[in-house]
Description:
By secondary structure, the chain is α/β, with parallel strands linked by helices. Helices cover 40% and strands 17% of the residues.
Amino acid sequence: MMKMNAIILAGHSGKDDIICELENVPKKGFIKLGTKMFIERQVEEFLKCDFVDKIYLAGMAEEEWETDHPVVFVEVEGTIFDKVNLVFKENIAKEEGYHEFALLLSSDVPLVKSDMIRRFAEKCKEESGGEIDGIFYYPIVEKETMLQKFPDVVRSWIKLKNLDFCGGDILLVQPKKLLEHKKLIDDLGSQRKSFLGQLIVLDPILVLKFIFKRLSMERLLKFFNKKLLKLERGMYAPLMFDAEIAMDVDKPEHLEVARKYYVENKNLYE
């Protein structure tokens, strides 16, 4: 496996206020799962991956977390694009022989393990035909797979032709090339919680196909690559069976589900 960096999106937004107040923490990354904070668990799992080089905490200052783990703190606010942009330009790109690819992980996904990260990277490689060469790899988890591990989870599902799924919260990107599509990424990012909103950004025709259940994942990827990225291959959506990568903690009820799963599978996490 080629070497790559990891970027943990460790900032705070207004939508995090409720759960942070309930847990009495300044950021979701500091919420505890068992004896360890979300962010601590994530860093430790990345450190177990021999193909991960440096770990950047985007949106967190060094004084916020006293740790002996080898991480790079990067103070930055704004969109996901803004954070990746700054980490790349001010940190990664300044290193001689820097790594072209980076794993992005939201700090509110505490159940991710190193073997899941490796499986995702391997699946990205497989989807690309044996070599990771895309711009954006966005994992998807089928509804049935998600509910098998988290039967109590209440969330919205994206319904395409013959496919009901949710998106994972770990991505693999090629920052340098991703930054060439700033406006598109910003527009899609502004609709991150609304699949229909993202389709409106892309093309009204896709909205109609989606409404009438005629939109397939294959057609969506083909449109995205050829019409928007102007590439044969650029965006991939690998199907994953590790539901944990999609179990983000946005609300108190999500935290309850995650903690229940942790208790039931404590041997895997301690």
